[in-house]
Specification:
Length: about 290
């Protein structure tokens, strides 16, 4: 290969590495701009009714500090989020409609600053299994809202946990709860009060680790997301996003607890579910969630 061709190929690879971070920075900036126009227009129509609406325009059209930080971060970094552009866009489409909202994310990583910036003035919290990693991330992004948590499960127990759930009454759809539910091994217990006391509009499951036998696996996160969605008291559905659906355990537990009938979109390795509260389900007294 000629030297000129080698140089061009190397340049092409370098350009590809930069594409996703720059695209994400543009995505955040574009979202901010569009949101500002839409919300300003909406409130302008009401200005003649209430003078205070003009103050609301200023509040919602002003870019938040964490959004600016996210734009700079992704525009100058070669470290990319765990999800690709198409997968990210699935959640973004929902955030455009629901933000500001309560957004729960299992995992703390290179995409955390992005998720927080895409839910301005909303409540976005991250649950991370590694306390040292939490300290590392918060050192560079102290405005993120994150908790270090402990899981009671291991990936190698996945099949046994399915059998356990079918035989344990406190795991059943009609009786399942989370806080203090020690009898159900799939219930996430000992988490921060905020986790239990908040009604989550969006739940992203991209952690904990689930790629070796002793890892916590995502079994309990998936089960608990289903329980929270079914116990929803507010209007509308709970949006649940599950990443790494190409893995066996994620797929089996998604089909057992999140239900194929509530799957509304699949992009890459991401599944998006819209789960109604139990009060809006036609059947809720069966032994299984799906």
């Amino acid at each position: 290969m000629k030297r000129e061709e080698t140089v061009k190929n190397r340049q092409f690879v370098a350009d590809k590495r930069w594409f996703l971070p720059i695209a994400i920075a543009g995505l955040i900036a574009g979202t901010i701009l569009i949101s500002s126009f839409i919300k300003t227009a909406d409130y302008s129509l009401l200005c003649s009714i209430a003078k205070t609406r003009s103050e609301a325009v200023d509040e919602y059209s002003t870019t938040t500090p964490i959004q600016l930080q996210a734009i700079v971060h992704y525009a100058t970094s070669r470290i990319v989020p765990q999800q690709n552009f198409g997968e990210i866009s699935v959640t973004l489409d929902v955030l455009k409609k629901r933000s500001p909202c309560n957004f729960l994310v299992f995992g703390l990583g290179y995409d955390s600053l992005m998720w927080t910036s895409l839910n301005p003035r909303g409540n976005t919290i991250f649950l991370e299994e590694d306390p040292k990693w939490v300290q590392t991330v918060l050192k560079d992004a102290p405005d993120l809202h994150a908790h270090a948590v402990k899981y009671r499960t291991q990936l190698k127990e996945a099949d046994d946990l399915l059998s356990h759930y079918l035989s344990e009454p406190n795991c059943s759809p009609s009786k399942a709860y989370l806080r203090g539910n020690e009898k159900c091994k799939l219930a996430l217990t000992g988490f921060p009060d905020e986790y239990y006391d908040t009604e989550w509009d969006l739940i992203m499951i991209d952690a904990p680790r689930g790629y070796f036998a002793e890892a916590p696996g995502r079994m309990a996160a998936i089960f608990s997301a289903a329980v929270m969605a079914r116990n929803r008291k507010g209007s509308g559905v709970t949006h649940v996003f599950l990443h790494d659906i190409d893995r066996r355990v994620e797929k089996i537990f998604a089909e057992e607890f999140l239900c194929r009938k509530y799957l509304v979109k699949s992009v890459g390795r991401l599944w998006h579910f819209e789960i109604p509260p139990a009060a809006n389900m036609s059947t809720v007294d069966g032994p299984r969630f799906c």
